[in-house]
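User: I've been trying to design a sequence by hand for this structure and keep getting stuck. Would you show me what you'd pick, starting by listing the structure so we're on the same page?

Assistant: Good idea, let's start from the same input. This is the structure you sent:
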């Protein structure tokens, strides 16, 4: 984590917690509490904590780099046997990421 943040900041600028009212959390689906949790939360930032925020480098109010310890890619891995038992589709935040990246 420490090395990744240093390198990301070197090429993209400072990383800071993304505010819960950022457009990313409302550009398609609404996430009023900020980033959704996953069943694969990692404490890989080296501090043994699960963080409630994402880190982002911004240019103006637009995200240029988004950094997370939430392991969304594992959560979005589709398998029909596991997806049919979920009450809320966990890929909704992925939709927001794509919509945000393609608009604005």
């Amino acid at each position: 984590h420490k090395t990744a943040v240093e390198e990301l900041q070197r090429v993209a600028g400072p990383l800071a917690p993304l505010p819960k009212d950022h457009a990313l959390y409302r550009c398609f689906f609404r996430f009023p509490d900020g980033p959704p949790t996953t069943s694969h939360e990692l404490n890989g930032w080296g501090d043994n904590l699960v963080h409630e925020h994402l880190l982002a480098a911004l240019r103006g109010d637009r995200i240029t780099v988004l950094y997370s310890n939430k392991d969304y890619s594992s959560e979005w891995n589709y398998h029909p046997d596991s997806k049919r038992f979920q009450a809320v589709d966990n890929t909704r935040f992925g939709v927001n990421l794509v919509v945000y990246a393609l608009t604005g």
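That's my pick for every position. To get oriented when you compare it with your attempt: The helical segments are 2-12, 72-76, 80-83, 92-102. The radius of gyration is 14 Å.
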